[in-house]
Every structure is written in structure tokens, then in C-alpha cells.
Design brief:
The complex is a heterodimer of chains A (88) and B (551). Chain A has one domain: 2-Layer Sandwich (Histidine-containing Protein, Chain: A), CATH 3.30.1340.10. Helix content of chain A is 35%, strand content 23%. Chain A has 3 helices and 4 strands; from the N terminus they run E-H-E-E-H-E-H. Chain A has helices at 16-27, 48-54, 71-82; strands spanning 3-7, 32-37, 43-44, 61-67. Chain A has a 4-stranded antiparallel sheet with strand order 1-4-2-3, covered by helices on one side. The longest helix of chain A is centred in the first third of the chain and has 12 residues, at 16-27. Chain B folds into 3 domains: 5-22 and 145-244, Phosphohistidine domain (Glucose Oxidase, domain 1, 3-Layer(bba) Sandwich), CATH 3.50.30.10; 38-137, PtsI, HPr-binding domain (Enzyme I, Chain A, domain 2), CATH 1.10.274.10; 248-549, Phosphoenolpyruvate-binding domains (TIM Barrel, Alpha-Beta Barrel). In chain B, helix 11 links the parallel strand 11 (319-323) and strand 12 (380-385). The chains are: A alpha+beta (88), B alpha/beta (551). The A-B interface holds A 11-12, 15-17, 19-20, 23-24, 43-44, 46-50, 52-53, 55 and B 69, 72-73, 76-77, 80-83, 108, 111-112, 115, 118-119, 122, 296-297.
Chain lengths: 88, 551
């Protein structure tokens, strides 16, 4: 299963607006994508609630995994989103 | 026809309109699970969640900016696939549909609470969504503000800050609550919006949606289905009253010309334009918490300079008393570790926070920003610290202000110790301002958040007035200003009592200034002193009120 390791760019972390934008983008992907913090269970990337409970902070590294049609493209899109500073 | 009823009038004015009730949070029925058809139950739950989300979408469309952004994020939660999974689990474990929904929201609530900080605060959002979902499932109206499409009298058991955030003064013409007291959130809000309001009226429970009511926020009288002639008489008198208030102008004066500064309280940039438009001599209490609460990181000095500058510009040529950050246990900051405090009102809050490293640098940044903004504008900027208890704290704060180039530094008096030793407190600083809400809570040992203690929290409590008298006397001797910036100042009769006790300025909700000015201009200073003597002679708040009304 393809994976990407990404460092979260937004200072606030994967909370509030950055979390919302990420979950929305994940829901638009044809592939099923999960997101995990190091050593923790992966969660559904479309679930804003599960993403919030990850409590990923700015500068934390997360692992994205995808399976199904367009997995690589989905990972690219979501990794780019996480690398975008959404604080502004 | 329902009989007339009375409560406590807390915000003067009269209004006549149909009732619309704030829908209560629905109580879920007992758990009747397991559901005979879990798949159908899940479909019902999902449909209810979708209804809640669609309603939030509609409201997000009508809103703008930050509010729209927040509502948009909220609408994602009922549609969250993980929430539906949890509901499916709970149904499989034998819960009835409403209880499966409650359990699923509860799962995420605990997870957010466990994360702490900012996320823990969002846990309350989930409670609201849960209540909305349950209401839809049970076929009840969704909890929250009604929207009947015409002006109405809002009737509720009580109002929480969340209920009133979206209150539109164009459609709500008066507020009636069954519970609450003169210092409750409802009373404060109604006064600041200039809306007639009656609180502590248990009989209002019988008022139904659509019933026409006449509400008098001065006397506390509520008349369901009134005679047309009576409505006309009351509304004519109301029109005369508002015209008289609108005609009252200029600085505060007693009938014999004794000057009393009339100032406004200001708590958020949203209220700035309306507050600045009021005929007042400035801001007596500029609360700065809005810059610090509900955010992940401390505001930068530049951001603060900008925010303070807007206020100083709007009040150019007038006085602005800035209160430094009053955060702490009951108003926690996401970026400061407050530890665990079992008794928040008595904890590390206000100036006490400056005793910590994080709090100390927050205060330095804030004073720097205030000084920079003050230098750029023509407002007369004073600064004061909240929660000062000892003369040493007051003097240390004043020294710190002066070191930042802020020449006029004072102290809030809201801790009884500071009132008792006001003359010593004033030795080390330039002025004092009595925060009667907190001073009342600490003097009467009555939690401001506890509705059942409303009587003890009444600003007419003679013990509270004794402390005001002590502080005002200390100010007179030291020839330093001692004002009042609590709710007490916005009650016209009580304002006269405070002036009689020797208070030199009154700061209040902007909507209250005209009525206080009018009352004050009808009394001499000797009248005010006589009213004060009567109030101090009483044993109970209600007795003090009666004695002064009869003066």
C-alpha cells in the first residue's frame, strides 16, 4: 500500500480550519486514505472527528496511506494540502 | 386568557409582540433498545444527522466570515463517517436509536476532552450537535433561537451566552426569562442592547408561542393578550420615554451641577462603533480578553497595537480605561498551562497570572502594545489591573505601567480586601474602579454562575454598598478618582446611590447611559447622599431598593 510521510505546515496543527480543509479534500478522493501519527492506529482521513482526536500539531510528522483507484494521485493531493500553511 | 404576571424588570422599556420560545434541550426517553431493525434505525439516525447538517449549511450561507467558517466545520461533524460507524456499533450493542446517537457523540466528546486545551473547548460544540440530532429524532423543534419571521418577545427558561450570540435586535423586541437575576447574563446582555427585559418570572413558563404580550422591562410586568387601548397607552408612554432619553445630552451632572463622568463598557471590536456613537465621556472599562481567548497562540504586539489603536481612534479626545488581561482559571488560555484549579473564581486569574513566567511576559507585551497605540492616537489612555487584592500588587502594577511609559495606572477593586484597604491601595496607584459584579460575588460568597443565588448577587446588597462607600471615601481623602464599572452603574436609581456614596465616575452598558444621565440630572448631590444613607440603612437588597424608590 503506497504511503507518504508528511510534516504538518500549519502552526495550529491539524485542527480547526486546516483539519476541515484536509477532511474535505480526502472525501473528494477516489482512493480510501488513512492518516496516522507515528506508532498510532491510522484513522479515516475523511473523518474530521477522527482527525481532531489525532491531535496532530504543527511540525508533527504524519503517515498517509491509500488504497484503490488513483491511490498515488490522492496521496499527492493530500500531502500537498498538509504541506500548505493554512494559518493565514 | 392567561393572567398578568410579574418578574424583576432589569432593562427598562416597553414592547408588544407575539411570544416565541427558545426551544429547550429535549430530554431523551428511556433506552428501549435493542432496536428490532438495526438497519432501519441506522437509516433514521443518519437522516436526522443530515437534517441537522443541512440546517447548519443554511445558517452558514446566511452568515459571513468567521461565523460561516465555524458553521461550515460544524456541519461536517453530523456527516462524519466515523460518527455513523459509532452509531452502528452502539445499535449493534443493543442501544435504542436516541441512545446510540448520544453514545456516539459521547465517544468523540471524551476523545476531544482527553486531548485537552483548544480541543476540550470544542467538546461543547458536540453537545449542541447531539441535542439538535436528538430533537430531530424525537420530532421536537431544534434547540436554539426561534426564527418566526417577524418581531417577537423571546421567552426562555434562561439564556446561555451561546443562545444570545446570534440574537438580532431587529427581530427580538424584548426578553423574558423564568430564571436568572439582576446580574444574570440575560440582564447584562439586554441592557447592553437596550432591549426591555424581565427575569425571574416563573409564571412565564405558561406563555406559548404566538401569544401577544405587552412587556414592561422597568416594572417587570407582563400582560398576555392586553386590551388594545392599554397597548396604545403603554407604547405612547414608551415613545415619550425614548424621545426624552434621546434629548438628554452632555456630560453627567447632578441637578446642582456636581460632575460625574458617564462612561461606557466595551468588550469587543464588534460593539465599538455603537459604543463610540453614544454621548459619553469615554470608555470606563475596555475589556481586552477578546484578543486572547479562543485562540491557539498569544496575539503579537503588532496585532494588539492595531486592536487598541482602533478603540483609541474611535474615542479620540476622550478617556479610555484599558483593563489588562483578566484570564485565568474560569477563562483559560489555550497557550498558557493553568494547571488544575478546583475553585476557579478564587484561583490564579487577573493580575495573579502576572506572577507566572508566561503571564509576566503576556503583561509586558500588552503594556508595550497599549503604550505604542496610545502614542499614535489622541485618546486619554488609562490602564488598570484586574483582581488586585493588596496594596503591594497595586503599586507593583503601577510601577510596571510607568516603566512602559503609561502615566496613569490604577486598580480594579473587586476583591473585598482591596476595598477594605482602599486608602493603602490608592497610595501606590492613581485611581480605582469598583467592579461590583465580582465584588458582590466575593463579598456575599455567592457564585455568579449560580442562578439560585440571584438575591445575594443583587447589586443593591447593603454589604456591597458598604465596601463601595469605604473605597469612595478613601478616594475622596486621597483626591484620586474612584469609579464604578459594574452592572450597578447601569441601574439609574442605584447610580444615584453610588454618586451619593462618593463615586466619581460611572461606566456602564452603552444603552444605559441616557437613562442614568436623565435620572442623575433630576437629583441634587444632597438627594443622592440621602438616597445612599437610606440604602445603607437597609438590611436586605430588596429593602434598600424600596427605601430609595420612596425617597
Amino acid at each position: 500500500m503506497p504511503e507518504r510521510r508528511v510534516v504538518i505546515a500549519s502552526n495550529v496543527g491539524l485542527h480547526a480550519r486546516p483539519a476541515k480543509l484536509f477532511a474535505k479534500l480526502a472525501a473528494d478522493q477516489p482512493a480510501k486514505v488513512t492518516i496516522a501519527k507515528e506508532g498510532q492506529e491510522p484513522v479515516d482521513a475523511r473523518s474530521l472527528l477522527m482527525i481532531l482526536t489525532l491531535d496532530a500539531k504543527g511540525g508533527d510528522e504524519v503517515v498517509l496511506s491509500a488504497e484503490g483507484e488513483g491511490a498515488e494521485a490522492s496521496l499527492d493531493a493530500l500531502a500537498t494540502e498538509l504541506q500548505t500553511d493554512r494559518d493565514v | 386568557m392567561t393572567a398578568e404576571m410579574t418578574g424583576i424588570g432589569v432593562s427598562p422599556g416597553a414592547a408588544y409582540a407575539p411570544v416565541a420560545r427558545l426551544a429547550p434541550v429535549p430530554a431523551p426517553p428511556a433506552d428501549t433498545g435493542p432496536e428490532p431493525d438495526p438497519a432501519a434505525a441506522l437509516a433514521r439516525a443518519k437522516a436526522a444527522l443530515e437534517t441537522v447538517a443541512a440546517d447548519l449549511d443554511d445558517r452558514a450561507e446566511a452568515a459571513s466570515g468567521t461565523t460561516a467558517d465555524i458553521l461550515d466545520a460544524q456541519s461536517m461533524m453530523p456527516r462524519d463517517p466515523a460518527l455513523a460507524d459509532q452509531i452502528e456499533n452502539s445499535l449493534a450493542n443493543g442501544r435504542s436509536t436516541p441512545h446510540a446517537v448520544i453514545e456516539a457523540y459521547g465517544f468523540f466528546r471524551s476523545a476531544l476532552e482527553a486531548a485537552g486545551g483548544y480541543l476540550a473547548e470544542r467538546a461543547a460544540d458536540l453537545d449542541d450537535l447531539r441535542d439538535r440530532t436528538i430533537a430531530v429524532l424525537l420530532g421536537r423543534p431544534m434547540p436554539g433561537l426561534p426564527d418566526p419571521g417577524h418581531p417577537f418577545v423571546l421567552v426562555a427558561k434562561d439564556l446561555a451566552p451561546a443562545d444570545t450570540a446570534a440574537l438580532d435586535p431587529a427581530t427580538v423586541v424584548a426578553i423574558v426569562t423564568e430564571q436568572g437575576g439582576p446580574t444574570s447574563h440575560t440582564a447584562i446582555l439586554a441592557k447592553s442592547m437596550g432591549l426591555p427585559a424581565v427575569v425571574a418570572c416563573p409564571a412565564a413558563a405558561a406563555l406559548e408561542d404566538g401569544t401577544e404580550v405587552l412587556v414592561d422591562g422597568g416594572t417587570g410586568l407582563i400582560v398576555p393578550d392586553p386590551e388594545p387601548g392599554r397597548v396604545r397607552r403603554v407604547l405612547d408612554a414608551e415613545a415619550k420615554r425614548t424621545a426624552a432619553l434621546a434629548a438628554s445630552r452632555g456630560p453627567g451632572r447632578t441637578a446642582d451641577g456636581h460632575a460625574v463622568q458617564l462612561l461606557v463598557n466595551l468588550g469587543s471590536p464588534a460593539d465599538l462603533a455603537a459604543a463610540a456613537a453614544v454621548d459619553s465621556e469615554g470608555v470606563g472599562l475596555f475589556r481586552t480578553e477578546f484578543l486572547f481567548l479562543d485562540r491557539e497562540t498569544a496575539p503579537t504586539v503588532d496585532e494588539q497595537v492595531e486592536a487598541y489603536g482602533q478603540v483609541f481612534a474611535a474615542f479620540s479626545g476622550r478617556k479610555v480605561v484599558v483593563r489588562t488581561l483578566d484570564a485565568g482559571a474560569d477563562k483559560p488560555l489555550a497557550f498558557v498551562d493553568h494547571g488544575d484549579e478546583p475553585n476557579p473564581a478564587l484561583g490564579v486569574r487577573g493580575i495573579r497570572l502576572a506572577g507566572t513566567d508566561a503571564g509576566s511576559s503576556l503583561l509586558d507585551d500588552q503594556l508595550t502594545a497599549i503604550a505604542v497605540a496610545a502614542a499614535k492616537h489622541a485618546a486619554e489612555v488609562w490602564v488598570m489591573a484586574p483582581m488586585v487584592a493588596t496594596p503591594g500588587e497595586a503599586a507593583a502594577f503601577a510601577d510596571r505601567c510607568r516603566a512602559h511609559g503609561l502615566p496613569t495606572a490604577g486598580t480594579m477593586i473587586e476583591v473585598p480586601a482591596a476595598a477594605l484597604r482602599a486608602s493603602r491601595v490608592l497610595e501606590g496607584c492613581d485611581f480605582a474602579s469598583l467592579g461590583t459584579n465580582d465584588l458582590g460575588q466575593y463579598t456575599l460568597a455567592a457564585d455568579r454562575m449560580n442562578g439560585s443565588l440571584a438575591e445575594l448577587l443583587d447589586p443593591w446588597q447593603p454589604a456591597l454598598l458598604d465596601l463601595v462607600s469605604l473605597a469612595a471615601e478613601a478616594g475622596r481623602e486621597a483626591e484620586k478618582p474612584v469609579g464604578v464599572c459594574g452592572e450597578a452603574a447601569s441601574d439609574p436609581m442605584l447610580a444615584c446611590v453610588l454618586v451619593g456614596l462618593g463615586v466619581t465616575s460611572l461606566s456602564m452598558a452603552p444603552g444605559a447611559v441616557a437613562a442614568v444621565r436623565a435620572e442623575l440630572s433630576a437629583r441634587t448631590l444632597a438627594d443622592c447622599a440621602g438616597m445612599a444613607a437610606r440604602a445603607l440603612h437597609a438590611d436586605e437588597a430588596a429593602e434598600a431598593r424600596r427605601a430609595v424608590a420612596a425617597y
